[in-house]
Amino acid sequence: MRKNIVAGNWKMNTTVPEGVALAKEVNEALKGATTKCDVVICVPFTHLVPVADVIDQTVLGLGAENCADHKSGAYTGEVSAPMVASTGAKYVILGHSERRQYYGETAETLREKVALALENGLTPIFCIGEVLEERENGTYNDVVKAQIVDALFNLSAEDFGKLILAYEPVWAIGTGKTATADQAEDMHAHIRAVIAEKYGKEVADNTSILYGGSCKPSNAAEIFSKPDVDGGLIGGAALKCADFMGIVNAF
Ligand code: PEP
């Protein structure tokens, strides 16, 4: 059966010493605590090795926020999936709306990234979500379906089953404006139906679908109570241990 997961996305925040201190604090808070979900932090590339050194990954999973769409070679400034895997990290966020919006990521590049992540034993946390205009003009279900079909439906059922999906309405990211629990549930149920249509009910039922977008300790419990919401991808609130743990404990 699918897992409940709360994953932090630190984005481009914290220096290495600050990030190591935050990771240690979260790791300490989780040790000995009883949680009803897996907990992961996705950190900047520079932080992967020093954070891996100070956390217990049986308690707190570690991931990157991106990886390259090539395995190796003359791609100055890029970091490959094998490099990420060699740090000990087990997860990688792919297709975040900030990457799509500011760095021109397309379904084609994302297909490459997903394939390389899987080849290297990394679990992609694959992000999808509509912009405000698409929410307002009513095309959001079609937009999200196309994002899934175009970037992921080349995968075998076995490989698709290795993914975590994150529904992140772009209008809710970092804006303080959260989707209502009912809006999140409607979209998550839609996503599960799209998966079932292609891969069958068992794969769909086993896929963890996280909600992301201004999730906080005060709204997490209501959102997580919905049957198709299996946790959260957390930006701003992942940067303070108390807030992040408040969301983890919302389960
Ligand atoms: C995100 O960027 O993945 C995110 C959910 O951000 P925030 O929680 O800050 O809206």
Order of helices and strands: EHEHEHEHHEHHHEHHEHEH
Proportion in β-strands: 5-15%
Give the overall form: globular
Q: Roughly what percent helix?
A: 40-55%
Task: Please provide a written account of the structure.
- With 251 residues, this protein is an alpha/beta fold.
- Helix content is 44%, strand content 15%.
- α3 links the parallel β3 and β4.
- α7 packs across α9.
- The longest helix has 19 residues.
- The mean pLDDT is 97.
- The structure holds phosphoenolpyruvate (PEP).
In short:
The protein has helices at residues 16-30, 48-54, 81-86, 97-103, 107-119, 132-136, 140-152, 157-160, 181-199, 201-206, 217-224, 241-248; strands at 5-9, 38-43, 61-64, 91-94, 123-128, 164-167, 209-212, 231-234. By secondary structure, the protein is of the alpha/beta class.
Summarize the SSE layout with pairings.
Layout: E1 5-9, H1 16-30, E2 38-43, H2 48-54, E3 61-64, H3 81-86, E4 91-94, H4 97-103, H5 107-119, E5 123-128, H6 132-136, H7 140-152, H8 157-160, E6 164-167, H9 181-199, H10 201-206, E7 209-212, H11 217-224, E8 231-234, H12 241-248
Parallel strand pairs: 1-2, 1-8, 2-3, 3-4, 4-5, 5-6, 6-7, 7-8
Helix pairs in contact: 1-12, 5-7, 7-9, 11-12
